[in-house]
Amino acid sequence: MTKKTYFFLILILGSLTALGPFSIDMYLPGFPAIAKDLHTTAAKVSLSLSGFFIGISFGQLLYGPLLDRFGRKKPLFIGLCIYIIASIGCALTDSIEGLIVLRIIQAIGSCAATVASVAMVRDLFPVNENAKVFSLLLLVVGVSPMIAPTVGGYVTSAFGWHAVFWILAVMGVAILAATILWLPDSYKPDKSMSLKPGPIIQNFIAVVREPQFITYSLTGAVAFAGLFAYVSGSPLVFMEVFHTNEQTYGWIFAFLSVGFIGSSQLNTLFLRKFSSEQVVNLALICQVIISFTFLAAASNGLLTLPTTIVFLFFFLCCVGYTYPNAAALSLAPFSKNAGSASALMGAFQMGAGTLISIAISLFEVPSIVPMVGSMAISASIALMILLVGRRFITQKVAVQEGADAGVMH
């Protein structure tokens, strides 16, 4: 593979991966404007974000078998078309209920891009390069939280929140064109892959029974839920607790994204000396310490806007180390079932994000504690899953080594 081909593959796969995050981040500064225009509250508007997470969680389970059965490109094209139509619907809706429903449909479309891009990393690159490729994808993905809220703030101020969804529709069209023209077929359709519920469920069960997958996919999902807590809670915290305007919020969001992006790129340097297992372990320990210190400060009213930004910055740095390594370790045992494994990993991630965002939306009184408390809980549960799961991985390795020794004798 030439450097030019490598670059374009990363760029296209990164664009596919970034579609969902861009759809999440770009309309965040418009929460107050949407609430006013649709005669509702900012807390209820946040349910449209929860709806997006629900759509992604369901959609990834749907697309996993489809990507294995029909190849990567056909389901991807269909998903992008759904995304484009739903984005136009969001721009035209005049009710909060309509926006919530359309956001669910939009998410179902966008998650085809997410699942396909992750599966294609496993298709196109050697297993030992997967963590590095995921880190590079995060660099492309990381541009979205740097640009999206800032652009969304200015677009909302100048043209209204409806314009945000028109822009997302245009982005969908551009990405669809790029995948048609330049993305290679990385996986031949597997006609033996049944689309009947029974075999699909059995296939998912086979994936879940792999100790390495279930340990690292759940660890990564729950740890990553802390990021969703931040995304869901930040409009309320920054614009209603600290009273920043849309543009300032966008710039703060962009700055905090530097922590997430920077750590994901430094991860490639760490992998030269340390294993992915070691990096995940250390990052999660730091994530727990930072989040509980953050919670203690929040509970005692000790936080200012600058100290809140500092705590969030370092928390997101930890997430930037956890995600690419957990994702690579989750998918490493698979080749044939990479689509299904990718779908399950994404469903776990978005499922955890959905629960945490819904929990935060229930607190209508402006406060930073629900967001920070959710971050601390997610980090601690992720660390416990990792510690328990590693025992099962060790047991399986010991059994396999014993069986191999028996065969040799």
UniProtKB/TrEMBL annotation:
Keywords: Cell membrane, Membrane, Transmembrane, Transmembrane helix, Transport. Pfam families: MFS_1 (PF07690). It is a multi-pass membrane protein. The chain crosses the membrane at residues 45-64, 76-94, 100-121, 133-155, 161-183, 213-231, 251-270, 282-303, 309-331, 343-362, 368-388. It is found in: Cell membrane. Residues 9-397 form the Major facilitator superfamily (MFS) profile domain. Its main location: membrane. CDD domains: MFS_MdfA_MDR_like. InterPro entries: Efflux_drug-R_Bcr/CmlA (IPR004812), MFS (IPR011701), MFS_dom (IPR020846), MFS_trans_sf (IPR036259). Gene3D superfamilies: Multidrug resistance protein D. The keyword Transmembrane helix applies. SUPFAM superfamilies: MFS general substrate transporter. Belongs to the major facilitator superfamily. Bcr/CmlA family. This is DHA1 family bicyclomycin/chloramphenicol resistance-like MFS transporter.
